[in-house]
Amino acid sequence: MGLIGNIYGLLGYYCHVRDKLDKAMRFYEKGMVHDMTKPSYKLAYGVLLLKSGQFQKARDIFSSVLIDPRYKDSVRNMAKLNLSLAYWKLGDIDTAIEMLRELHRKQRTSRIYEALGYLLIEKGNLDEALKYNLEAVKYDAEDPVILDNLAQTYYMMGKLKEAKRYFEKAESLKEDQVSTLYYLGCIYQQEGNLQAAKEKLEKALGCNINPLSTISREAIQQKLEEINHALQSSSLK
After folding, report:
1. H-helix or E-strand containing 209?
2. d(CA 137, CA 117)
3. pLDDT tens-digit profile of 54-79?
4. In angstroms, rounded to a whole number, what is the distance separating the alpha carbons of residues 44 and 9?
5. What are the sequence ranges of the domains in the chain?
6. Which of 22, 126, 168, 176 has the smallest CB count inside 10 Å?
7. What does the buried/exposed string (b/e) look like for 196-227 if buried means 16 or more CB atoms within 10 Å of the residue's CB?
8. pLDDT tens, position by position, 126-160
9. Using CB atoms within 10 A of its CB, is residue 24 exposed (0-12), middle (13-18) or buried (19+)?
10. Membrane-crossing residues (predicted)?
11. Cα–Cα distance, 209 to 10 (Å, whole number)
12. Nearest-CA neighbor of 13 among 56, 30, 54?
């Protein structure tokens, strides 16, 4: 056991939960140099790497946890779930989906439903995504990510009425979910309610957007510019 490494890991985790992310990153990195072994610190470090866009380093951290026989199955399963996200962000969505399917065959958790439900949409398997996300909602009808996944599936299928209903329920449970706000803005735009669309998109810009987010700040800004242009044009008529 790396005593010094785990002390650094504890300091990193202390800063991490207090949102002092730069300090947390420095302590985690020192912890790894000194053989940080406690899995909760390594997993937290990997998640921080994901959210800062360091996907290859995150992949390596999660892989090291996954193959380590000292850790419990629950720890390795969490590493595998996060590892799938690293593979997705590195452009290997097929590997990511297969890893999540393997996890799903062994257990049911909201996080697995969240991750796999979204990646099926991202892959373009809309029929499978719809079936899976309907199953996910039956598993947990109060999870805003699961609801957002189902809403996105309906949106991609052109079923705006159903999409709007689930996006609105997701927003009622988590009002700062960037993808929910973005797609509600898109729906309001298509309905001709440009002011409401603008409000949702401006709210989306104020959310915590990081490299792991499914909607980029650039996409929101582009849509907002489009709506502002339409509002200006309508005011001139």
Report:
1. none
2. 10
3. 999 999 999 999 999 999 999 999 99
4. 9
5. 1-90+101-106+116-123
6. 22
7. bbbebbebbeebebeebbbbeeebbeebbeeb
8. 999 999 999 999 999 999 999 999 999 999 999 99
9. buried
10. none
11. 26
12. 30
| Residue 138 CB burial class (10 angstroms; 0-12, 13-18, ≥19) | exposed
Cα-flanking dihedrals φ and ψ of residue 154, to 5°?
-60, -40
Place of tokens 């959210």: 51
CB distance 120 to 130 below 8 Å: no
State the Cα–Cα distance between residues 73 and 181, nearest whole angstrom: 36
SS3 of 213, please?
coil
| Token duo for residue 208 | 């915590």
DSSP state at residue 159: -
> How far apart are the C-alpha atoms of 156 and 100, rounded to whole Å?
22
Residue type, 170: A
Q: Which of 64, 60, 86, 89 is nearest to 75 (CA)?
A: 64
